[in-house]
């Protein structure tokens, strides 16, 4: 049972149901008690909810009030739905909220280390799952390293990267690691695709980097950026469990904040979904 602390607050936003042909996001934002509602990643969740709906479990009405559109300085419009925060946020509770509000993005800012690249709830909910692994320094975001490669999570990663940049007035470096020469045409095509996906956003550059290990290259270069935004692994869940992944290495070894994006549009096997639910942090 969900108790709503405040009523809906809509500011000229599109219908969350997508009426009129408008594509909107319905974002569930999870953050720890005591986290400031003005936290930059909360602002990113708000940016993703532009024209749609922001659903947030909160402890009291004052937190809810601070997240209403008229109380924020974000240049976006969105509808708010606030839920009374349960004593313990469980995976079952999250999945129930996802179903009830038809959530498209789970934005998880809780201070915990994700396992196996994060995004475990995406397997069960079919929502895009964004997890934030805090770094040692977490004061501001002015630059983001965004490793890009062809894969099922690329579109969602670019969308989240743009939202992070726009909500923090930050710069993006799209970073692609190649092993050896002769891949210029493929890399150029990849960067062209990314440019088109960013759809008019201009505060970014592209960087073709030659190296033998993508994980090593990303970890080495991440120290020069405030945040690394990385896609979830492309390999199957069983291989990820047995062999690990570039994403897991990046999360474990990067000193800066790592934002991991797993698209909900990816088809998962029954085994993948079972492993996702089994490995998800039980909190």
TrEMBL record:
SUPFAM superfamilies: Adenine nucleotide alpha hydrolases-like. Residues 1-20 are annotated as: Disordered. It comes from the Archaea. This is Nucleotide-binding universal stress protein, UspA family. It comes from Halogeometricum limi.
């Amino acid at each position: 049972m969900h108790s709503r602390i405040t009523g809906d607050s809509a500011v000229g936003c599109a219908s969350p149901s997508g009426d009129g042909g408008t594509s909107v996001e319905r974002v569930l934002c999870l953050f720890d008690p005591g986290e400031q509602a003005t936290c930059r990643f909360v602002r990113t969740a708000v940016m993703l909810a532009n024209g749609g709906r922001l659903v947030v479990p909160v402890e009291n009405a004052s937190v809810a009030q601070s997240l209403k559109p008229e109380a924020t300085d974000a240049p976006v419009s969105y509808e708010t739905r606030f839920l009374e925060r349960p004593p313990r946020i469980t995976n079952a509770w999250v999945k129930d909220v996802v179903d009830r509000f038809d959530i498209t993005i789970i934005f998880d800012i809780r201070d915990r280390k994700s396992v196996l690249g994060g995004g475990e709830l995406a397997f069960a909910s079919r929502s895009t799952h964004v997890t934030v692994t805090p770094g040692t320094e977490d004061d501001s975001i002015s630059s983001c390293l965004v490793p890009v490669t062809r894969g099922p999570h690329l579109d969602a990663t670019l969308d989240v990267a743009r939202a992070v940049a726009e909500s923090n007035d930050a710069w993006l470096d799209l970073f692609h690691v190649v092993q050896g020469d002769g891949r210029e045409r493929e890399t150029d095509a990849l960067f062209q695709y990314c440019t088109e996906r960013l759809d008019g956003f201009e505060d970014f550059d592209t960087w073709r980097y030659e190296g033998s290990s993508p994980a090593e290259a990303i970890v080495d270069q991440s120290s020069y950026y405030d945040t690394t935004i990385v896609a979830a692994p492309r390999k199957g869940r069983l291989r990820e469990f047995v062999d690990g992944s570039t994403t897991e290495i990046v999360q474990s070894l990067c000193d800066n904040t790592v934002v991991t994006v797993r698209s909900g549009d990816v088809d998962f096997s029954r085994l993948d979904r079972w492993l996702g639910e089994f490995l998800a942090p039980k909190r």
